[in-house]
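Posted in: Protein Modeling Q&A

I'm a second-year student putting together a small comparison for a lab meeting, and my supervisor asked me to include a predicted structure for Peptidase A1 domain-containing protein. I've never done this before, so apologies if this is the wrong subforum. The sequence is pasted below exactly as I got it from our records. If anyone can share the structure token output, I'd also love a short note on what stands out.
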Amino acid sequence: MAFLISLLFFSISIAYLSVSSSQIVLPLSHSMSKTKFNNTHHLLKSSSVQSATRFRNHHHRHLHRRQISLPLSAGSDYTLTFSLGSNPPQTISLYMDTGSDLVWSPCAPFECILCEGKYDTSSASLVPPNISSSAFVPCKSPFCSAVHSSLPSSDLCAISHCPLETIEISDCSSFACPPFYYAYADGSFIARLYRDSISIPMSSPSLHLKNFTFGCAHTSLAEPIGVAGFGRGVLSLPAQLANLSPQLGNSFSYCLISHSFDDQRIRRPSPLILGRYSLDDEKKQQSVEEEGEFQYTQMLDNPKYPYFYCVGLEAISVGRVRIAAPEMLKMVNSKGDGGMVVDSGTTFTMLPAKLYEAVVAEFDRRVDRVYKRSRETEDQTGLGPCYYIDKAAFGKVPKVAFHFVGNARVVLPTRNYFFRFNGGDGVGKKTNVGCLMLMNGGDDAESGGPGATLGNYQQQGFEVIYDLEKGRVGFARKQCATLWDSLNRGGSTSSSPSTGRTGTSPSDDRHMGLG
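Accepted answer (user: helix_wrangler)
Welcome! Here is the predicted structure, written out as tokens:
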């Protein structure tokens, strides 16, 4: 009998404002939508298709230069919930995405073409806000130039019909930045830039940011929910926080609680941390977690996709066998080709064909000795190799580790790359199956773009820190639920595991301005 699996996605609401001015901690808490899947195969197929689509989109040179691909798959979506404006404040939820650098939202009146079944229309946080009181961003603003691929402000003001004599004296402040177009793998939208206040919702206090710049879309194709871009760029949320407070904007990290596509496994929020740790904080967490130190690898600048967090991958080990990565994954060339993108918006890790095939061959050589391949499951899920397994399978699967440039070695928990679930044997009998949760990105040497993507499923159970000040990405094994508890121990907070709602002292109120 087929069973239903609810689409799992995550919403962020702020729970704790640290007594330190350099750090804010927010919970990533899960909620359920009404979107259903007939079985696990359907859910995994949806996730694998989304991962492949997003990865391929990074290599389409003919698309708009600032293209993004938005997360749409089950179990992989993380959304940031906050309030827009103040008269009255309006709640909106946006996807958190480290693979793009713009914050944008659908705005009323809003028309979404081909959006049926893609979101829960009853959710109050997904009702497009009215931005009638928001201020437009002028054509001469650096933000306007940034969203239009660095087009000169004089050109943008001319498009906005600012008179020539006014352009010559740089006095086009009353002319709005013209609309911009974004395209991605299975949709697109047209938006304008606005400024307004945003607040991270808290019972008391609230973090209030004035003059925050965001995109507002009245029309989209196949995309009903906006994005909170955390990528490298002046319009991203971290960059705008850095303008407000360098200590808040120079790093962020998250620790995703392992869910294995089962919301019942999540008993605590997953912490999202804005701002940098002090050395004492890091040592305290290591003591509490009894885990190792962060393994850091340098960020690689990408001239074609400057908003990506690219790192160099040297090898992947399966058991004791170390498989060297191609040279293209160790660096990014002058055309923007190569490297591995660390991405919160892609579910499964994507590897170039030859590396993927080498990893699979070694993995299968080890596992095929013990378990029979399940070709039917591979066809149904888009993943592979898959096997008919028993309850002792996790102890018989070889360890997998990623080796990044700079001697950073990240050993994955077995559940991060081998998923066990109830499948079929091809004749109607239910049995346990397990699949390798890495994917073949194809031969991308000729098409260019990033060579690989590190997906969020493989990031579960790690704190992943984006150190923007030192230009590096770090990984540390953590018990993310315990990390959440330890981060909240120092403040006068109360937390409900089921909702993630907390309260803090009103004396911690923060009201800050941007611009």
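A couple of things worth pointing out for your meeting: The longest strand covers residues 23-37. Residues 160 and 178 are 6 Å apart (CA to CA).
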